[in-house]
Amino acid sequence: MVRIERAYVIALTIIAITITLTQLISQRHIRLNRLDSTIVNISGRQRMLSQKIAKSAIQLVTATDSVRFINSQSELRKAVNLWAQSHRALQNGDDEMGISSVNNSDEILGHFEQIRPAFESIHKNAVILAEKSTFQTINQPSWQSSLQHILDHENDFLTIMDAITFQYDEEAQQRVTSLSRLEFGLYMVAIILLILEAIFIFRPALRLLKESTDKLIVSERNLEQARVEKQYTKQLETKNQELRQFVYITSHDLIEPLNTIISFSKILARNSSPMNELQQKSVDVINKSAFRMKDFMLSILEFSRIGREKTRTEVDLIEVIEKLKTDLHSLIEEKQASIQFVGESLKFGAYENDLTKLLQNLIVNGIKYGKKELKPEIILDAKEQKEVYLVSVKDNGIGIPEKYFERIFEVFQRLHTRDQYEGTGIGLAHCKKIVELHDGDIWVESEEGVGSTFYFTISKQPL
Predict the structure, then answer these.
(1) What residues form DSSP beta bridges with 350?
(2) In this structure, are residues 367 and 393 in contact, taking their beta carbons and an 8 Å threshold?
(3) DSSP structure class, residue 35
(4) Strand pairing partners for 315?
C-alpha cells in the first residue's frame, strides 16, 4: 500500500506540472496572438496611411482657397505623425500602440533597411508641406518638388511594406502552429498519465481491496459459525476487526485520489483552448470511470460499516417503511412507483439502521429493475411465525432466471451490464450480511419477465 501511495503522489505531481505547463503555454499563446494581431494590423495600416499622405499632399498643393488648404494640411499632419509613429513602433516597440516589445526576424529587418530611403524621403517632404507651407506660398516650385518626391517614392514604400506585412503574418502563423502542437502534446501527456494512473495504481489497489474484502467475508462467516456453536475466540474477533478496519480505511482513502482525478479531468475539459474529439472522448472516459470507481468505493465503505450497531432495539416495521417512502420520495415520483404494505403491524428487536438499509436496497432494486412498459409496484408483507418474523418484498419487474438465485447474493456479482442498469453488484450482498446479523435467512422466488419476491427472516430474541 505504501508503494501504491508513493506512485500516486509521483503521478499526481507529474500531472499537476503538465497541466500547469499547458496553462502557461495557453496564456502565452493568447498573448502572442494578441501581439501578432496588433503588429499585422499596424503593418497593414501603413499602406493606407502612406496613400492618405499622398492624397492629402495633392489636395494641399492644389487647394484653391485657404479653407481647403488648412483642412488638407491638418489631415496631412495627422497622417504623417501616425505613419511615422507606427513605423518606429514596428521596429522598436511602443506601449502606446500596444506593442510592448518586438523581435523582428533578419528578413523583416532587411526589409526595413530597404524601405528606409523611401520612408525618409516621404517623411521629409511631407513634413515640409505639413509644417512650413502656407496658402500664399504653396505654388512655389519647392512645394511642387516636395509633392513630386512623395509621389515618386510612394510605390517603392508600398511594395516593400506589403512584403513586411506578409512576412509578419507568415511568422505569426508559424508561431501559432508551433504552440498549438506543443499544447496538444501536453494535453495528450496529461490524458495518458491519467489513464496510466488508473491502470497501474488503482487496479492493484482495487485488487488488494477485493482480496481484503473476500477475506473479511470468509472471516465473518467463520465468526458467525463460531457464534452458532458458542465458540467465540478472541483471535478471530481481532482478525475480523482488523480486516474490517483495513477495508474501511482503504476504501475511504481511495476516494480522495478519485476526487482528484475527477477535478483534473474537469480542469482539462474547461481549458481555454478547445479540445479535439480524441481529447474530449479521453477526458469523458476518464471522468465516467472515476465516478464509477467512486461509487464502487462508497459501496465497499458501506459494506464495511454493516454490523457496527452493538445492541438490538425495538423497531416498528410500519414506521421504518413510511420513513423509507419519505427518503425515496424523489425516486418514487420519478419512476411513478407505488409502495404498499399489506402485512401485520409488527414490532420486534432488530438493528434499526441495518434493517432500514436492507429494506431500502430491496425496494430500490424493485424499482430500478422494473419493466419499461409498466409502472413499478412494490408490495411488502410481514408475518409473525413461531421462532422468526417473515418479511417479503414483491415487485413486478423483469425477474431473475432460476440459475442465478444463489449467485445474486454474492459480492461483486452482476447479471446485467452497466449500460443496461447502473450498480456495483454489492447491494444484495449487503442484504445477506444484514440478515445473517439477525440470525435469519434470505432467498428469492422469481419468474423471468413477471417479477421477483425476496423473503427474509428475523430471529426472535429478547431485548
Answers:
(1) 313
(2) no
(3) H
(4) 348
Domains of the chain and any CATH numbers: 1-303 (1.20.120.1730), 306-463 (3.30.565.10)
d(CA 433, CA 83): 85
Q: What is the DSSP annotation of 258-319?
A: HHHHHHHHHHHHT-SSPP-HHHHHHHHHHHHHHHHHHHHHHHHHHHHHTT---S-EEEEHHH
Q: What is the pLDDT along the chain (463 residues), one digit of tens a residue?
A: 556 566 666 766 777 777 777 777 767 767 777 777 888 888 888 888 988 988 988 888 888 888 888 898 899 899 999 999 988 888 888 888 888 777 888 898 899 899 999 999 999 998 888 887 676 666 667 778 888 888 888 898 889 988 888 888 888 888 778 777 777 777 777 778 777 776 776 677 677 777 777 777 777 777 777 777 655 556 555 555 555 555 555 555 566 666 677 776 777 666 646 666 776 777 776 766 665 665 555 556 565 556 666 678 899 999 999 999 999 999 999 999 999 999 888 999 998 888 998 999 899 989 988 888 889 999 999 999 989 999 999 999 988 888 888 888 876 555 544 444 454 557 788 888 889 988 999 999 999 889 999 999 999 887 6
For the chain, the first-to-last Cα distance in angstroms comes to 42
Backbone angles phi, psi at 396, to 5 degrees: -110, 40
Please report where in the chains the cell 417479503 appears, as a residue.
392
Measured distance CA(184)–CA(209) in Å, rounded: 36
Find where cell 501603413 sits.
46
Structure-block grid coordinates of residue 378? 412494490
Place of cell 488648412: 70
Q: Whose CA is closest to 388, among 434, 320, 456?
A: 456
Q: For residue 308, how many C-alpha atoms fall within 13 Å in the half-sphere facing its CB?
A: 10
Gyration radius of the chain over CA positions: 40
